[in-house]
Amino acid sequence: MANNSYSGVKNSMVEANHDGEFGCTLKDLRSLMELRGAEAISKIGESYEDTQGLCNRLKTSPIDGLSGQPADIEKRKTVFGENLIPPKKPKTFLQLVWEALQDVTLIILEVAAIVSLGLSFYKPPDAERENCGRAAGGVEDENESEAGWIEGAAILLSVVCVVLVTAFNDWSKEKQFRGLQSRIEQEQKFTVVRGGQVIQIPVAEIVVGDVAQVKYGDLLPADGVLIQGNDLKIDESSLTGESDHVKKTQEKDPMLLSGTHVMEGSGKMLVTAVGVNSQTGIIFTLLGSAEDDDEDEEEKKKEKEEKKKQRKIPGAQIPSASKAQDGAAMEMQPLNSDEGADAEEKKKSNLPKKEKSVLQGKLTKLAVQIGKAGLVMSAITVIILVVLFVVDTFWIQGLSWVKECTPIYIQFFVKFFIIGVTVLVVAVPEGLPLAVTISLAYSVKKMMKDNNLVRHLDACETMGNATAICSDKTGTLTMNRMTVVQAFVAEKHYKKVPEPENIPSSILDILILGIAVNCAYTTKIMPPEKEGGLPRQVGNKTECALLGFSNDLKRDYQAIRTEIPEEKLYKVYTFNSVRKSMSTVLKMADGSYRMFSKGASEILLKKCSKIMTANGESKVFRPRDRDDMVKKVIEPMASEGLRTICLAYRDFPASEGEPDWDSENDILTGLTCLSVVGIEDPVRPEVPDAIRKCQRAGITVRMVTGDNINTARAIATKCGILLPGDDFICLEGKEFNRRIRNEKGEIEQERIDKIWPKLRVLARSSPTDKHTLVKGIIDSTVLEQRQVVAVTGDGTNDGPALKKADVGFAMGIAGTDVAKEASDIILTDDNFSSIVKAVMWGRNVYDSISKFLQFQLTVNVVAVIVAFTGACITQDSPLKAVQMLWVNLIMDTFASLALATEPPTEALLLRKPYGRNKPLISRTMMKNILGQGVYQLIIIFTLLFAGEKLFDIDSGRNTPLHAPPSEHYTIVFNTFVLMQLFNEINARKIHGERNVFEGIFNNLIFCSIVFGTFIIQIVIVQFGGKPFSCVSLTIDQWLWCTFLGFGSLLWGQVISTVPTSRLKFLKTAGHGTQKEEIPDYELEELDDMDEIDHAERELRRGQILWFRGLNRIQTQIRVVNAFRSSISLYEGLEKPESRSSIHNFMTHPEFRIEDSEPHIPLIDDTDAEDDAPTKRNSNNNAVESSNHLLPEGPKSGTPSAPGSPLHSLETSL
Questions:
Q1: Using a CB cutoff of 8 Å and minimum separation of 24, what contacts does 614-623 make?
Q2: What's the angle, vertex CA 841, arms to CA 176 and CA 888, rounded to 5?
Q3: Gene Ontology terms, cellular component aspect (predicted)?
């Protein structure tokens, strides 16, 4: 060995490269990692003799790992790179400013302002001026006409303000998002061996030469070579697009690639490539370097190209067709830095083609409607102003158009145009999208404190609509701290852990040996962190309970593990959801083999044919004895909420030779039962209360668990999911499946509909059952409202259910990486009560938006009507352009900040969830909006047409073009703004509550914004002068303005006395677009866009109808041709031989499913269990790879993907 490493050093000296330290270069390793299977093995053989040789070259030990000295780690980072993929640069502030400037209304305003500026400098000779009509004359003071430019300049200035504020908001949003992303990255740790110690380090700290432990459910953070593996199966679909799991062994295929998922087994790998040099990293660099940031077009083309190439890169969202049925091979977007493109990319990539979130859909639609109305109003305003002016000047005064006067006339027209645009600016609620983002970003930030790490912004708001939660039992409802409390050993049932003396030593020795070697070596019991605390449980909690049991029996499992290290285990059958058991084989000194098994008691007992008796002998164990045992031991344990685990073993004598380890069914029979233990997992103390809150809030909690039905029922009763005397049902997975399938074994939606409303507990369920249940509830149409389902999951196989659910919660502590990938929210404390907090925040987001809408629409209605009527009657808008922009700024930007950051209250949990199609603006809100609007209009028109008499000042109406600002109009403006300010306080309540001040001081942002706006308003009025068209007012006038403003609070009380039920005529507004309303052909078109943009939908209807006819005809022709080539569509479902032909049929160039339907993972369409319950492979939610391409015919409850050729096929058949 020494020789080997020495020659390695010598070679590198000859090459004289900077990796002088190590026996192989970065290049060597990169080229090694590009090989697969046999090639890779021969290459390792040629260059390094074996993996041991590779370890020596990399100066690491397969057993003890790296020394872990900082200097060594640093050196490795410099030579081989860090495990980071540098993110794309965020948009700079200037880019954001530029984007904010793209707003159409702002551009129109800028143009108008510039024209107005230019014209204000033109002065016709004085003599001529008189001849240009009344409106132009009457300028007594020279200085006044000089100030004509101010209005244009002021508009430009306020545009700049609006742009800066918008850009700043975007920037802070982006920053928050990046913060969130990096927070997710820091959360991710991986287990490595350093200095002989097993430690967890952040993924970014992994270096080449590390020895990492990989286990079920991991997402591999770097490339490596397998050193030792048990039954390791990897899902490489994220890199290759092949959905079949790849078996990894040292002999056949030892290459492990970053970004792939461990679906089964465990092992150790030597890290050989990290960061940009790993396979995922290389792909990202290709993606990154191929296009410049500016060339978005290129990016889009690339994406399309990549899709066609069927490559699926984690995080780059490029799905392939063949990986569709596999749970964990779903569109995964990486959590960690080493595969993450930057946050922005993620944001795009991690939303599979989802509809915009419900809320955004409703808002966009509403904004489009309001915008259209505003446009009409502003156009009418301009037309009326122009007509009045023309009629007045040329008709009534009878002047003719004189060349000298042209600029003056144009100036008038520009002024009218500016007024029109300001009406439009005020009418369009730009604040809406802003309010949503602020509210969501704020909630997400605060939800961190409540242990909710939100990965997709809109999940937060969807949670407020949740009507059902399907929760795991272990770890979510319970504490996930397991202890053995009862045992059945040597024919005796002990109600508490027995004393070691009471157990025959022959049984005890086998029992302890079995526990020590047949629990994963990553599972251990550590001494408590604090004196007198409970010992820490590391690894799988059920195994911890067994190791604790061994400690309670005064035996040291660690000694046995030291004697039999992991390398000496002959064969390991790891736990998976099909086996529901784990077995380890040891080769004994005399050449015989002994296998230890542990697993769910009812499953393992069926495989036992002997049982150990009190005298330490084994006796025959018949089915009759088994039923006896189930009744006397297992059911009593289960009914106390204990989990029962059976421990057994089997000897294979040397005389019979080596058994065939691959035929599992022959190996796992004829076991000898050693013991059955009852493991307690206490319910979390805060759970029953949280579940009560959910039920009160109209959310049904269902428990989906792998435990047996008695245990599940006991726990459900403790939690309050089942209440005594309710007629709710508990089912086992088998029974559930029997009830929902028809004679042909297909799942039928009607059958699910009969079950789910009453179902509260689903026990012994497989991940597929969970997915079926979630899908069944979501697709159900029994209740008038579509159910919104949240699901919790922690295992790899929960991926499909988490994806399918409206909101997927992954466990932050117990969850596997795969589950976290598929989820929307990560519960950092694995606690059910955090889900209730998420519901509260979700509802709060919804309410915040409604509050803001209620405020915003009042202002819009009033401002538009005032500007419109004012312009028509007095030929000049009472609210000037700059003033309107200020109002727009306070009501849009500041108010969205103030109202969107209200903290949630417990009261939110007292009402039922809003449905998906509940309008944004309820009757109560409509009543408030119209009520306040009436009050404000009355006040303003009174001031406008009688203000001069009331306040005894000059009238501001009918002033010439460049007249100085008047007190009259200043009072109108001031009162208007103050009414908005007081109405902002009114807007804090939307359900018609009386006390609008309740909890106002809990929200500092709100107080400071209202107060700040008031101060600025004083400054504008007193010192704004010409640019703001204001004159400073006296104290008296200020008091009057404030009093009139305050009136809106009093008026609010009057409004809330009127019962809404009386006002049947009030309409609601802001319904969302239902997904159902969007026809399939349109979805197909929309698939190319990132989200369904409702505004664009309105415009694209026409074009789409054209294409629709063509598409249909083409598809039908294709189908006919396909049938002519005499391939029956449904053959493959009956006989497996024809599968290949179906596969070819589907990958026939015209039938590229992935082209027509790029982002819908097909897992939703065909439930893997439907077609072939028999042909399940070991992952139990993946069927033979070609089957999933065909739904089971139009009858079944599962529709084929809309837009796929199959769908049109159904319609045309």
A1: 614/490, 614/491, 614/492, 614/504, 615/504, 616/490, 616/504, 616/505, 616/506, 616/507, 618/672, 621/673
A2: 65
A3: plasma membrane
Encoded tokens for 236: 């490489």
Residues in CB range of 1199: below 8 A, 6 or more apart: 1165, 1191, 1207
The mean of the pLDDT values for the chain is 75
CA nearest neighbour of 216 among 971, 794, 859, 884: 794
Give one DSSP letter per residue of 966-985, joined into a string. -HHHHHHHHHHHHHHHHHHH
Nearest partner of 439 among 97, 1013, 841, judged by Cα: 841
| CA distances from residue 469 to 429, 701, 1167 in whole angstroms, order as listed | 35, 5, 21
Residue 1093: is its pLDDT beyond 80? Answer: no
Q: What is the pLDDT of residues 827-864, one digit of tens each?
A: 888 888 889 899 999 898 888 888 888 888 888 888 88
Q: How confident is the model at residue 490 (pLDDT cuts 50, 70, 90)?
A: confident
Any idea which of 292-301, 554-563, 578-587 has the lowest mean pLDDT?
Answer: 292-301
Phi, psi of 1019 (to 5 degrees): -60, -45
668-693 per-position pLDDT tens digit? 889 999 999 999 888 888 899 999 99
| pLDDT on residue 18 | 44
Q: Nearest-CA neighbor of 547 among 573, 495, 580, 511?
A: 511
Supply the pLDDT for residue 1171.
39
Candidates 124, 157, 326; CA nearest to 240 is 326
- A 10 A CB-CB count for 1212 gives 13
Q: Which range is least confidently modeled, 195-199, 320-324, 893-897?
A: 320-324
797 vs 767: CA distance, rounded Å: 6
Question: 1172 exposed, middle or buried (CB, 10 Å; 0-12, 13-18, 19+)?
Answer: middle
The CA distances from residue 1071 to 308, 427, 914, in Å, are 37, 20, 12
Give the mean pLDDT of 506-519.
Answer: 91
Tokens of 615: 């005298």
What is the DSSP code (8-state) at residue 682?
A: P
Q: Compute how many other C-beta atoms are within 10 angstroms of the C-beta atom of residue 137.
A: 14
How far is the C-alpha of 206 from the C-alpha of 218, rounded, in Å? 15
Helix (H) or strand (E) holding 154: helix 149-187
**CA dihedral in degrees (978, 980, 984, 990; nearest 10)?**
140
By C-alpha distance, which of 860, 992, 1033 is closest to 936?
A: 860
Q: Which one of 170, 450, 472, 1164 is the catalytic residue?
A: 472
Which amino acid would we find at residue 1041? C
Structure tokens at 128: 């001529």
pLDDT at position 448 is: 84
Burial class (CB in 10 A: 0-12, 13-18, 19+), 938: exposed
Give the 3-state secondary structure of residue 234.
strand
Active site residue 235: no
Spatial CB neighbours of 589, under 8 Å, sequence gap ≥ 6: none
Question: Average pLDDT of 203-212?
Answer: 88
In the block, which residue shows the tokens 């070691």? 500
Burial of residue 1028 (CB within 10 Å: 0-12, 13-18, 19+) is buried
Percentages helix, strand, coil for the chain (3-state, rounded to 5) are 55, 15, 35
Residue 279 has pLDDT above 50, yes or no: yes
Distance CA 436, CA 1159 (A): 26
CA-based max dimension of the chain = 129
Which residue has tokens 């190209």? 305
Residue 399 has what DSSP assignment? P
pLDDT grade, residue 935 (50/70/90)?
very high
User: Do 174 and 344 meet the contact criterion of CB atoms below 8 Å apart?
Assistant: yes
pLDDT in tens, 710-756: 889 989 998 999 988 888 899 999 999 999 988 888 888 888 988 88
* Amino acid letter, 1146: M
